[in-house]
Each structure stands twice: as C-alpha cells, then as structure tokens.
Amino acid sequence: MNIRLFGIEGCEKCDMQKGVLEALSIPYMYVDANADEHEALCDEQGVEDVPHIQLVHNDLVVHQHVGFVDPKKLQKVAAEIGQIIK
Fold first, then answer.
1. Mean pLDDT, rounded, for 16-38
2. What is the span of the domain harbouring residue 17?
3. What DSSP element (H or E) covers 66?
4. In which band, very low, low, confident or very high, does the pLDDT at 85 lie, cut at 50, 70 and 90?
5. Contact 15/23 with Cβ under 8 angstroms?
6. What is the rounded end-to-end Cα distance, in angstroms, of the chain?
C-alpha cells in the first residue's frame, strides 16, 4: 500500500503533513496539485482541496482524506485496510 499526498506550494497544512510523515519515516509520493503535469491526475482523482491524502493499493484508491490527518490514525487505517485486502 502506498500513500499519495496532494498539496500545493505555500500550503501550511500540506507542509505540516509532509513534515509529520517524514519525521515518522512514513514513505509517500508527493503530488503538486498546481503543476500542469498533474492536472489530469488531480481531475481524475477528484482533488479539489489540499492536503488530500490517498491510500493506494494496486493502483486503486482504497481510502482518502481531505485535510490534515494525524499520521497515527493514517497508519491505523492502513493496517486495517491491509488486513481486509490480504
């Protein structure tokens, strides 16, 4: 399972989310929601606000959250989903 974090430059909550994930050594893929090359992905994924976090398994979004999310809660949700999709 992978974490995809959509954010934009200068977004305080996005920076907080990135910082907490990094401090806890939680791997994630950052997607700049303002970048032209990510416009189609953002549209396809329905990203309208940031931070927007997705848990992705086999290229399918299995959970998503808009706004800052406590990483421990995110880890708990990922573990629960991991048990379901095994």
1. 93
2. 2-85
3. strand 60-66
4. low
5. no
6. 11
Residue 68 φ then ψ, to 5°? -65, 135
How many domains does the chain fold into?
Answer: 1
Alpha-carbon Rg for the chain, nearest whole angstrom, is: 12
CATH number for the domain harbouring residue 51: 3.40.30.10
Q: Tell me how far apart the alpha carbons of residues 75 and 14 are, in angstroms, rounded to a whole number.
A: 18
For 25, phi and psi rounded to 5 degrees? 55, 40
The 10s digit of each residue's pLDDT in 31-83 is 999 999 999 999 999 999 999 999 999 999 999 999 999 878 888 888 888 77
